[in-house]
Structures are given as C-alpha cells and as structure tokens.
Amino acid sequence: MGYIELDLLEETTRKIVIGIDLGTTNSLPAIWRDGRPEVLRVEGEPALVPSVVNFPEEGPPLVGHAARAQAVVDPRHTIFSIKRFMGRGLADARADARSLPFEVSENENGVLQIDVRGRKITPPEISALILRRVIEQAEEAFGGAEVQSAVITVPAYFDDAQRQATRDAARLAGIDVLRIVNEPTAASLAYGLDQGDAGTVAVYDLGGGTFDVSILSIEEGVFGVLATAGDTHLGGDDFDAALVDLMREELARDLPEEDLDDPAFLQAARLAAEKCKIALSGSPAHDLALSLPSSGTTWRRTVTREEFEQRIAPLVERTLDACRRCLSDAKLRADEVDEVVLVGGSTRVPAVRAAVEKLFGRPPHTGLDPDQVVALGAAAQAQVLMGGTRDILLMDVTPLSLGLETMGGAVAKLIERNSRVPCSHTEGFTTYVDGQTAIDFHIVQGERELAEDCRTLGRFRLSGIPPMAAGMARVAVRFHIDADGVLTVTAKEQTSGVAAEIECKPMHGLTDEEVEEMLAAGFENAQADFDARRVADLKAELGTMLRAVDKNQETARKQLDRETLEDLEEATQAARKAREGNDLDALVRSRDRLEQASQPLAAVLMDAVVKEAVTGKKLEDV
Amino acid sequence: MADCSACGAALETPLGCEACGIVLESPPESGPFDIFGLKPTWNVDERDLKRRLRRFGRIVHPDFHMGDPAQQALAETNSAALNRAFEVLLDPFLRADWILERLGGPSEQEERQMPQAFLMEVLDWNETLDAAEGAAADSPERQALDRLAETLTEERDARMQAIGRKLSPLPERGAPVLRTIRQELNAIRYLSRALYRIRDLRYGAGEI
Fold first, then answer.
1. Which of A200, A280, A308, A578 could form a disulfide with A586 if both were Cys (CB 3.0 to 4.6 A apart)?
2. Residues 6+ positions from B101 with CB-CB distance below 8 Å
3. Which CATH class is domain A514-621?
4. Which of A219, A230, A422 is nearest residue B62 as measured by Cβ atoms?
5. A83 is catalytic
6. CA of A417, closest CA in chain B: separation in Å?
7. How many CB pairs under 8 A join A and B?
8. Which of A17, A157, A216, A222 to mutate to test the interface with B (most CBs of B within 10 A)?
9. How far is A378 from A384, CA to CA, in rounded Å?
10. What is the pLDDT of residues B67-94, one digit of tens each?
11. Top-tier CATH class for A402-509
12. pLDDT digit string (tens) for A401-455?
C-alpha cells in the first residue's frame, strides 16, 4: 500500500546579506555566492532599478521602472535624482531647483521637505522607498529569501550629513546597515577580485549625479585608499542639463519663459536630452527631439557629438581638476598610476574616456560593467563583514577635513582630509570668561579657511562646567570618525571630574524622534493599505454570496419558512448596503450575518443536490 | 613587548594578537614606534612600515570584529591609534615633531622666533600667491606660481634632509640641537602651508 508523504518541513525563510549601490539614477543589489559577487536580478527583468519615485493620486507610491514610466504623464509627482538632496537643506535645493521642480521647504532642523500631493516628504523617506524596491528585487531574485542587512555604498566625497541621511534612509526601509562603503572603494574591490593585486589604481567614478576619484594601492588583499577627491554635484544629470539648456535657448524665441520652467517641459526635455546623450556615445550625430502634446510643441534638431562635447567640456575639466587634487594628495604623479578603472554610466561618454586617457597617459581599464561594479564590490565587502574572509581588507580615508570654529570665525582643523579611518583626534579647549559654565562648539567640514565657507555639521554646547577662573577649565573634545566615515564628537571637562553633558544638533539631519515618527507613520500606512485590500476582498466575497442568493430566489421562497425567509431578505439588504460603503467592520458584520441567514437555503440546496444524485433528476425538476 | 593576555603568544603590536586574532587594550603610553613594534629611530623603512600596517590592520580593523560589540569598540579605538601611528611614522615632519617632543625639545609654541630674512621671504611668496588668485591658467601670474611651487618643494625637502642628518643617530635628551631642529620644523610649517594653498589655487579647493 502506498502512502502519502506529508511535507512537514517548517517554513523557514533564508536570511541573506547583500550589497546595494544606491545611485542617483539607478540602484542595484548584489550578493556573494559561490565565491564571487553577482548581481541579483529577476529573470526576464532589467537588473537596474531606476532611482525614481512617483506618487499616484491613489494607492502606494510607484518606484523604479513603473515610476519612470510616469515621468512625462505625471511630472509633478515624479521625483528623480533625490540623492542630490540627501543631507542637504533648502538653500541647496533652491540652487539646484531644476533637478527638483517641486515646492520645497525646510523643517526646524534644516531638513529639506518636498511637497507632494499636500504631503511633506524628506529625501531619506524617498530613498527608503527606492531601497525597499531594491530589497524586494533581491528577495525575489533569491527565491523568497529575506534581506537581513546590507552594505550600502555612497560617493566617497559625501560629507557627514549625507552619510547620516543615507543611514536614516536604510532605517526607514527597515534594514540593518552593516557598513557604509565609498563607491570607488567598492569598485576597486570588484576590480581587484577580478585582476588580483594590481599596484596603484585610480578609480574614476562619474555617475548620474556625483563624481569621485580615488587612488588606491592594492597589495596582499589590502585595498588602501591613498587619497580621494570629487564633487557631489557633478554627473550625467549635468550632461543632460547641458542639452536641456540648448533646447531652452532655442525654444526661448517661441515659448514664454514660464513654459520653459514648467515641470512637464523640464521632465520631457530631460528625458529627451538623456536619450540623445546616450545615442551620441555610439554615433557622431543624433536628433534631439521634444514633443509636448499639452502645449502642442514639437521641436527637433540634430546635435553633433562635437557640439555636445563642447557643451560638456567645462564639466569634464572639473573632474580632471579633482583628479589632479587627488594625485597631489596621494603624492603621486599621473604616470605613477598603474591602472585607471572607469565606473559609472557617464564614463561611457567618449569625451570623458579621452580626457581620462590623456591625463593619466594610458587607456583606462574598461573590462568591468561600469553600472554593476559598485554593487558587486559592496556584496564582496558584505561577505567580509559577515566573517566570511580576512583575505580582503578595505582601508579607506575621510574625504574632507573636519574642524571647529575658533574665535574670529576661522577653522581649527582637527582631522585633515584623506586621513585613514577609523581615526580620532582630541583637542583641548578652555573657558574665556571667569565663571563660564558652558562652551559652544561649531563643527564644520570642508577645506576653506573660514567657518562660514565650510559646511556646518552641527553645533553643540558643553554645559555643566563648574564655575572657575577663565582659562582654568580643561575641556577635551574628541572627534572620532568610524569605519563608516561617520563622525562622533564627545567632550569632557577634566579638572572637575564632573561629567559634562554634550548636546549635538545635526544640521540637515533627521532626529531619532523624526525617524521613529516616520516609521510609525509607515506602519499606519501599511495598516491602511492592508485595510483597503481587506475591504476589496470582502466586497468581492459579498458579491459572490449575493449572486448565489439571487439565483436561488425561487427555491428560497418555495422551500423556506416565513421567518427564515424574512431573515434572509433582511441580511441580503444589509449586505447590499454595506457593499456600497468602505466600512471594514460593517462589511465583516454583514458578511457574517448573511452567511448565517443563508445557511437554511444552503441546506435546502444541498439536500436537493443529494436527492438529484440519488434519483438522477435535475434540481429544477424536484 | 608583553605576551598576549588571552593566548600567551608573543605580541608584535600592543594593539592586538596576530596568533589568536583578538584586539587588546593597549597601554596608554604606547607611542607610534611601540605600536609598530619598532625602536625609535629617525630612519624608517617605508616598505616595512606599510607591510606592518597591513598585518596589524588585519588584526584590529573593525571589519573583522562585527559580531562582538566590546571587541568592535576596541577595534575602532585601536584602528584609529594604528592609523595615527602610521601617519606619524611615514610623514617626516610628524615623525621629527614626535621625536623632538619625546627628547624634551621645545614645542612649536615655545620656539616661535623666526629669522627676519625668512619672514621677508614668506611675504614675497604671499604676494605671488595673491597675484595668482583668479588668474587664468596660462597667465604670467600662474607661471610664477608654478615656479614658486618648485622652489618651495625643493626648499622643504632640503630642510627636511638637514633635520634628518641632525636626528641620526638620535641626539641626547635635552641636547641644544633640538632647538635648531624646532626652528627648521617651524620653517617647514610655513612652506607646507604655502604649498597647500598653491594646490588649491591650481586645482580648486573642492566644493562640497
């Protein structure tokens, strides 16, 4: 006799750790599998997730390809390139208004807020939606596994506020961040795994919105960054903008200015520019074409590669200056670099390749997919952090100097740019006035000599210093940059032994409370989404039941006693009414009532079915 | 050097043990030479130093201690100490500065006097620097800046070599030569600052 084997295996979800390239234009997950990193993609779908979010009138936000598809139809609610605004304030958004054609404001901590459909939403929340989508892709690609934690990459030149904002985004997306890794460093890791120890390598990383250059020495599996330089507001987006400017200049004769500033125009122009730019990498000339059904505008003109290159030349030159700065800090000449690795989609532009080749005096290495190499490196680093190997070690640097504002508005640098991280520095301070019980500190990041020309990272007040004569207090302020490149400041008054307090207000950063609130709001939204689905399901269920009752009206009238029939009619009426509304409780109640009231009818029908089976007659004939 | 408190193996750095892979609480008085397991000398072998950085980095880097919060926190501290020690040993200025302090020489604040002639020179550089501000890449002002960069680099290297000769072998504690070395270092400070500014004038300070 055969027997059926029951599948009693417990349903355990596999937990995975991944690397995520959270890019300005596209994002991508990767994982370490079978001794090497690989991109996580769903069979038959594109691997890259466009870093685009659309907020439809109803329902949850669209992310990725679905959102990108809405760009022209619904430009007012489609957000591109949010990475440019991570850790940034209102002034930055206004300066870059064309990348963000939305109503913007700032909360009391200087965090940028974008007005979408009457809701104020911050860049980390939008990034969290993108991260969520990337994680979903990873989970689906890995056959329903659950992503537990991730290594997320950021531009090497990101400052502290931008790194913190990226961490906030991950928290909002509900994942644990194992490590924030610099994009060019991650890329060098993928390159090194591919090529072995390679000596001195320069990574030129020109993405959608940011530019980094890092020079590393790769030796015995140690990837030591010697120096890094860059620009967090320079990328392929700016190449597109150069062509958008061309369109605006030529259309200025035909269209009023407000039309040229209209979000719909700008989105369409940007998409057209991007398309033309990509085509120009492969052909010497291409049509730049714009069609706006709303205003009946159509415009077309051929752009030659030469003309495009002329327009972007100043941008390319800016990247070369950063390369020269980086070489100077690494104390190297260009010809001492053994290999140049290109990363980021914008390095497909021939003019960029030519410029890099000329500066370093050698053709760049193009063996790796510039769109994937960062995610692959992040996956490799995730494997290291999981305790998978001690063969690989990344030793990175901090891109920007850190200091405190001194009397007179100058900057006292505590940590110089390109210091290896983790790093610490302790500096002594004292009081200026007799009986002074508090000292205010202004933490800045940047290379300029005046505090007002640098970025404010935060201000804090050391209070609780016991009153003493001026100059007697001994306050030790310690800066520590951890392996993520994130700064912690602690201060202590040493003579009194009194533990003084430190209060740090991050600029352009979400507070812990705000993150908690957003998370809670997210759960409420999730609850609301869940309820909406339940309402829809119940309506459908009621519909089926009501149709069944209607169909058997005849039988009900004939076979049921009066009381039962009245009860059924009442329940039916109540159910019809509940179905018109969206009240979840009312729907549940009327469903239960109808179920009960229709039981006798069901019994009669069942009876009839049995009789039919026995007698061979059809129900109608009974 | 002491033995590892966990496994008893001989330590090569007080920061951690290569044999058992744990991070150790190092004595607070550990200087950069102690951390690299070296005796204080002026001359350091750069390749050996880098090798040691890689080896010790493999012991103390936080990447390898993610599972244990206490070890991870110590790894942050010790990696910072290792990185700082490497910086001091590799950079001749910082190395000389550290040796001078250890031998009881005057600090930068205690020995502020600079020869009049040198200060006049500094004023001259500043004129060239100010003139190059905002000047075009091929202007005479920028060419003067390039020439100045060359001169200053040569002068800095020559002064550094002179310091090296005075520090090998290391002089006695409190020796009068320490004062001369401090004056040289102060001059180098001026030179480095000017070279730093030249870099920014040439390639931009890097906007953020």
1. A578
2. B107
3. mainly alpha
4. A422
5. yes
6. 11
7. 90
8. A222
9. 10
10. 899 999 999 999 999 999 999 999 999 9
11. mainly beta
12. 999 998 788 898 899 999 999 999 988 888 888 989 888 889 999 888 888 888 8
